[in-house]
Amino acid sequence: MEKNKSREQSTRSDVVRQLKAVRKEQHITQEVLAERAGTKKSNISRLESGRYNPSLDFLVKVAGCLGKTVEIQIMDK
Q1: pTM, 2 dp
Q2: Which of 3, 30, 38, 76 has the highest CB neighbour count under 10 A?
Q3: For 12-16, 27-31, 56-60, 65-69, which range has the lowest pLDDT when averaged over its residues?
Q4: Is 37's pLDDT higher than 90?
């Protein structure tokens, strides 16, 4: 059980790290990204800090605001 939780956290961290990197590469502030996504800057900050467990819909929305898509794969353990 603990191993699965660790893997889930790692996957979420990877996605968040990628979104943050793209935002910075595009020189977009958290505030601008929040405006584009129709949310508050504090939500983007919480997402990027890992203090937020975002919904898939939220991740897709944020990625879309950065001109990206989210791809999910179901894989064997």
Answers
A1: 0.83
A2: 30
A3: 12-16
A4: yes
Place of tokens 């699965």: 4
State the Cα–Cα distance between residues 2 and 72, nearest whole angstrom.
Answer: 22
Q: Alpha-carbon distance 2 to 22, whole Å?
A: 30
35 to 43, 51, 68: CA distances (angstroms): 11, 20, 17
Residue 52 confidence (pLDDT): 84
The three-class DSSP label of residue 26 is: coil
> What residue ranges define each of the domains in the chain, with the CATH number in brackets?
2-65 (1.10.260.40)
Helix extents (H) in 1-77: 2-25, 30-37, 41-49, 56-65
Distant-in-sequence contacts of 34-39, Cβ < 8 A, 24+ apart: 36/65, 37/61, 37/62, 37/65
Quote the distance between the C-alpha of residue 37 and its chain's center.
12
